[in-house]
Each structure stands twice: as structure tokens, then as C-alpha cells.
UniProtKB/TrEMBL annotation:
Residues holding Zn(2+) 2: E142, D181, H218, E261
Binding sites annotated in the UniProt record for Zn(2+) 1: H66, H106, E142
Domain Xylose isomerase-like TIM barrel intervals: 18-272
Species whose genome carries this gene: Candidatus Yanofskybacteria bacterium RIFCSPHIGHO2_01_FULL_41_53
Pfam families noted in UniProt: AP_endonuc_2
EC primary class: hydrolase
Protein name: Probable endonuclease 4
Reactions it catalyzes: Endonucleolytic cleavage to 5'-phosphooligonucleotide end-products
Keyword Nuclease: yes
Similarity section: Belongs to the AP endonuclease 2 family.
Amino acid sequence: MKIGCHVSIAGGIWNAPKNAADLGCEVFQMFTRSPQGGPAPKIDKEVVRQFKEEMKKWNQGDCYIHAPYYINFASAKKTIREASVRIVIEELERGSLIGAKYVITHLGSSKDLSCEEALDSTKYAIAQIVEKYKGSTQLLLEISAGAGNVMGDTFEELHQILEYVKEQNVMMYHNIGICLDSAHMFASGYDIKTKDGFNSTLKIIKETVGLKKIRVIHANDSKVDLGERKDRHDHIGDGKIGVEGFKNLIKAFPEVDFILETKPDKVTEDIKKLKLLRRKT
């Protein structure tokens, strides 16, 4: 297990490894383009060379890319769905160029489609990505907090998407996995705080997506309580999950990297807390 956080790429993605090291990261997550929209900065041979040199210089084990926030595979608009597929493929290809291990994406939300239609649309979009993309970076689907009509807020739903991909392209099935987000899970109703609740959650994971599909954990405490279905991150130990929840996660997933997405004011303190829990667990 390595521990890190989401970092800035201000000035160019080659600045991310130093930004990560300065915060005490062993791994890190970043955007390679604006999360809100606009063209992606070009990644040419010089950018690749500079980025890889900085990774080595600052002793960063791996890097992960977060897809833009506007991705929506469940939109009623075909143009939005098609653009989402194209952009995630682009991010995977960009990840392959720089040696990123994973691209992590949200699935989007449905307003004008039924739950069944939205899930079918999402399944099809993910299968298209897996079919069309041939690089080394793997795709991770992030569990959501369950607000509104958001997709992927249960392990059962994520399992249905993975099974569809497996049916369509079994050879590429190993290249897709799940990103747990502790705050999202908790808000969606998965009790990771208590011993009994966490054991029940683990049982559900085993019976659906499977433990081996958990590739990265977004380690965020939650400002909202269990099942409140809102995405509100808090610093480790300051929220409703508390330190015990992260002890449970560290014990259950000792080889999975933890990435913090907490506010910059205390993220270095959060990293230190997780490293201490890792030593003690």
C-alpha cells in the first residue's frame, strides 16, 4: 500500500511529481486536462520524457489520472454519451504515454432516462471504451455517493456493468476495475465504520464485484452521516466515518493504494495520519 493525494498540474503535468513529493505522497492522482472542459494540453515526446524524469527524481511509485467531471454515460443526449466515451479513451491513451497506472472515472447521472435505460446506456459506453482502447493504462469505475440520479452508487450496479463488459469482451475484462471512495460508500449506505457494518460491506463486495477488482481507494472522511447520499469530503478523523473506518479499510486492503481528495489546508496532515495507521494496523 502506498499513500498519496490528488495534486495540481499547474504549469504542466511534469510539475505533478514534485508537488506530490512536497506533500509527502508516495503515489498521486491528477487531472491531465481541465476537469470542467476545454481542449487537453498536448502530451508530446518531450512532455513524456520530462514527466518520467520527474517521477523518478521525486521517487513517486505510480500516478493515477482522474477523468473530467463532465463525463456522463447515462445522459439522454447521444452527443454527450459519445463525447464521454471519446474523452475517457483519450485519457487512457494519454495515461499510456506517461505510464499512468489507472484512469478513474465517475459514471454520470440520468435525468430523462429510466433507471434501466440509464444502466443499459452506461454498460454500453463502458464496453465501447474497453473495446476501442488498446493501451496499458487501466480503467477504474468509481463508486458514487448516490445523490440524485447518479450511476454506480451500489456494488450490485457496478457488478452489472462489469459483467456486461465481460460478456462483450472477456479478454479485456482484466483491464477494468473499481475505485472505492470511502466517503461515497458511507453516504450510499455502506457502513465501513463499525466492525459488523464493515464485515457486511466486505461480504457484499465479495459477492458482487469481488475483492480483486478493488484497485484504488479514495480515502476521504465524510461530512454527512451514513446513507445521507451527499458527496461531502472531510479530513481523516474529522468526519462521520472516523479513524476506525480507515483502520478497517487498511486491514482489509493492505496492498491497495490510498489517494486522498481532501482540501489542501490539512492534506499533509491527512497523509501523515494514514501512514501512521498503516504502521499500526
